[in-house]
Amino acid sequence: MKKLSFFILTLFLSFLVVSCGNDSSATASEKKENKADKKEMIDGIPITQAEMERASAIYFDRCAGCHGSTRKGATGPSLLPKGDGKFAATRDLGAAGIRVFIENGTPGGMPEWKGILKEDEVELLTRFLQVDPPETPPFTMKEIKDTWELIVPVADRPTKPEHNRNIDNYFGVIMRDAGKVVVIDGDTKEKLAVLKTGFAVHILRTSASGRYIYSIGRDGRITMIDTYTKVPQIVAKVRASFDARSVEVSKYKGPKGDFHDKYLIAGGYNPSHFVIFDAQTLEPLSVTKTSGNACDGDKEFVEEARVASIVASHTDPLWVVNVKETGMVWLVDYTDPVHPKSTQIPSARFLHDGGWDATGHYFLVAANASNKIVVVDVPNKKLEKVIDVGIKPHPGRGANIKNKMGNLWITCHLGENKLSFIKTDKGKGQWTVVKELSLPGDGGGSLFVKTHPKSKHLWVDRTLNPKPELNSAVTVIDVNTLEVIKELPMPKEVNGRAVHMEYNKAGDEVWVSVYMGKKSGIVIYDDKTLKVKQIITGDWVQNPTGKFNMYNTTNDIY
Ligand code: DHE
């Protein structure tokens, strides 16, 4: 805030200097020079308020995920002008040094941003990273409540679908850069609604009844979409934090109560907390901070302890909340959502994304910067196993297949060209990597794997691989032989990186997004023949990322 006032004052003063000291006798080139001289300075670095705001937005979108939204470091190092004792001061690196990192990435897993960020964006970041990060204002229950908008009260919503479409086969598709969610009828492939949600929507989840879609953006905005109306429509909105990635619903129905469509949880990167909402209205009910001691080593206290993935148990009224920097898995009991009780399980640091095994008893989550997969026995509330895998596992929700080796859960890796197949059946070999598989070509960069119980195929992308021929293709593997069947380059009608696969309800189609290139699209493959069935393009298809089939998302089918 102090900084903002300083900027406003500086802007105001520079306005006074420009308007009062206007020398009509100065030449045009002198005027230009004067203007350049008057560029605002912060600690000796020339940067204007407008540039600070633009750089903050670029940083938030591209860098905050790894370096933390306050630039104090997370899975990546801190980026502070004076350093933090562990990592170099950005002032010592200077603009040239910072540029080397941005453009070339690092062997530790930072991608090369050259070609992704524009030259003027790189140049701006080299200055922005040398000045103190902007301060973040508080975001407490009061601020959260102030953002709540109930657009259509429950009493005004239809009690049954107003159409004859097959909601189970609807797809919610994220148009990331446009800040929109598109609902597509998976049977007819018609676009039903393009809805403005929030900046850089990250994931979608669906309510336990399969009626509502909830989106969460990197800006922490949650949007609730009703699929019962003729045209899907937004019925409520709220903001959970400044920076977020995860949202989940309550899915338990059994002797302990019926919690279908009752509560919703959102995890915050910044502030580091989780918020519980009424799932029908999005009214905020409670906020719980996740800062705490790390699970290992000197058990240091971590203030920015970001909430990564959250999943709902089907066997108990609880959510599995994975806290990244502390490596603590919180099992949050939502039977009293205003005063939720939690069991905290120490596991391994830098928890990120994960999914259920085939039984829905065990949750497997990547501790990505520790190169491990953590297994949690959810009904018994205990750590089951920590498994060493490859460099930077990134499973998404993973994939469950069954072959002669038994039931296997799979992760791909960001940091190396490897798929790890983990046996999940009780008995000999449980929780061991029974098979590793390399994909064609070098390097890692895989983000997601996907399969379906009715399919004989496992699909994997290579989105962050530096080679265009690899990052614009997906690979299909036979679940029985565990051999690569085919590398599928995206068709010429689209251009960009291939990311995230999703099956339709029947399990006979696979939808792949193409983004970050010259022509966005959604490519639909026939899962049996591996031939392209349809390509969805249009001016409304803008950098699509995650796609979520209603039935598969509700029932955790992957
Ligand atoms: Fe994601 C899931 C965090 C970058 C697309 N992403 C997740 C989850 C987390 C996360 C914690 C698990 C949510 C859950 O299950 O509750 N993602 C992050 C980051 O911190 C990171 C590395 C950097 C960032 O700045 O955000 C990041 N993610 C990306 C991308 O660049 C992707 C490809 C496109 C985008 O949105 O910018 C991307 N992430 C996704 C998708 C999922 C996801 C599509 C859901 C996968 C699923 O099938 O459930």
Task: State the gist of this model.
The chain is an alpha+beta fold and 558 residues long. It has a domain at 6-128: Cytochrome c-like domain (Cytochrome Bc1 Complex, Chain D, domain 2, Orthogonal Bundle). The longest helix is centred in the N-terminal third of the chain and has 19 residues, at 2-20.
Topology:
Blueprint: H1 2-20, H2 28-37, E1 41-42, E2 45-46, H3 49-62, H4 64-67, H5 90-104, H6 119-128, H7 141-146, E3 149-150, E4 170-175, E5 180-185, E6 191-196, E7 201-206, E8 212-217, E9 221-226, E10 233-239, E11 243-249, E12 253-254, E13 257-258, E14 263-270, E15 273-278, E16 284-289, E17 292-293, E18 301-302, E19 307-312, E20 318-323, E21 328-333, E22 341-346, E23 351-356, E24 362-367, E25 372-377, E26 382-388, E27 399-403, E28 406-411, E29 419-423, E30 433-437, E31 449-450, E32 457-461, H8 468-471, E33 473-478, E34 484-489, E35 495-503, E36 509-519, E37 521-526, E38 532-536, E39 544-549, H9 550-554
Antiparallel strand pairs: 1-2, 3-10, 4-5, 4-39, 5-6, 7-8, 8-9, 9-10, 11-14, 12-13, 14-15, 15-16, 17-18, 19-20, 20-21, 21-22, 23-24, 24-25, 25-26, 27-28, 28-29, 29-30, 31-32, 32-33, 33-34, 35-36, 36-37, 37-38
Helix pairs in contact: 3-6, 5-6
Bound molecules: heme D.
Residues 64-65, 176, 202-203, 245-246, 308-310, 352-353, 396-397, 447, 499-500, 545-546 line the site of heme D.
